Amino acid sequence: MDSPNGKAVELGVPLDASETLYISNLNERIKLDVIKQSLRGLFKNYGTVLDVVAHKNLRMRGQAFVSFEDKEIAALALKEVKGFPLYSKPMQIAFARSRSDAVVKKLAESGFEEHKLGEAPAQTHVSWNNPHKRKARAKHNAGQAEGGVSAPVAKRPVVQMPDEYLPPNKILFLQNLPENTTQQQLVELFSQYPNLTEVRMIPTKKDIAFVEYGDETSSGVAKDALHNYKLDGEHKIKITFARK
Fold first, then answer.
1. Coiled-coil annotation: which residues (predicted)?
2. What is the tens place of the pLDDT at every residue in 206-237?
3. DSSP 111
4. How far is Cα 72 from Cα 84, in angstroms, rounded to an integer?
5. Which domain holds residue 52?
6. Does residue 71 contact residue 8 with C-beta atoms inside 8 Å?
7. What is the DSSP letter of 47?
8. Nearest Cα residue to 7 out of 65, 76, 72
9. CA 54 vs CA 51, 60, 61, 192, 212: distances in Å
């Protein structure tokens, strides 16, 4: 007779694995409810799916969590689905670091309140031990020890998100255009893709322009197709989504 962990060992389940899978590299252009429905439909072939969690905030774009009733089901799903091209992007899958709320409610309901209460202290502990915060506290304490008055702690500079990681929208920002580029040239180039509404040139900056489409799906298609396109055979056009 197999030991309780026999099946888990056979499937290569880590001893600290949870019943929840962490999915990344999901197609960010697909609506969130469609992604969640697709994940549920895909993974229900392996067993009961307790929950599918995905958030629309920028930090969590392209990521989701899928929870099952037990680790063996999660392990089998990970093994067989990892790399599956969902909406043309191969999914990256790993075991989540902790149990999801749905799993705790299902398998250890009596400990659910303790599970929820344990999250806040853990987050506080991580924040308190952040290397940058430790360094700031050390400077503060050193200042008090020397003169009784601590030096002001410098504020961290605001880091602007690189253009390449801006969220999709219907306006494209073009850079590195040849100086002799005309509006008509850009209209002809971008009208190959549906729903083009406007091309705006900047009179004082001849190497940049804005191209607007009727929706962000259309702008995304044009962006992917024409990024690094050589309009004059030499200059590669850099295309990103415009900042809102």
1. none
2. 899 999 999 988 998 999 999 999 988 888 99
3. G
4. 19
5. 6-108
6. yes
7. S
8. 72
9. 10, 8, 8, 34, 29
Give per-residue pLDDT as tens, 177-210: 998 999 999 999 999 999 999 999 988 888 999 9
Point out the domain boundary residue: 92, 108, 124.
108
Tokens of 89: 């992007």
Count the helices and strands in the chain (H runs, E runs). 8, 10
Do 10 and 104 fall into the same domain?
yes
> Is 135 part of any domain?
no
The answer to whether residues 103 and 195 belong to one domain is no
pLDDT in tens, 101-148: 766 766 655 544 554 444 444 444 444 455 555 666 666 666 655 555
The candidate with the shortest Cα–Cα distance to 174, out of 202, 194, 134, 154, is 202
pTM of the model: 0.43
| 169 domain-assigned | yes
- In terms of domains, do 170 and 237 share one? yes
Q: Which residues of 146-165 are buried (b: 16+ CB within 10 A; e: fewer)?
A: eeeeeeeeeeeeeeeeeeee
Residues in contact with 25: Cβ distance below 8 Å, sequence separation at least 6, in sequence order:
62, 89, 90, 91, 92
Tell me which residue of 183, 177, 205, 206 sits closest to 196, measured CA to CA.
Answer: 183
Of 65, 89, 108, the domain-final residue = 108
Q: What is the mean pLDDT of the chain?
A: 77
Assigned domain for 142 exists: no
101 and 12 inside one domain: yes
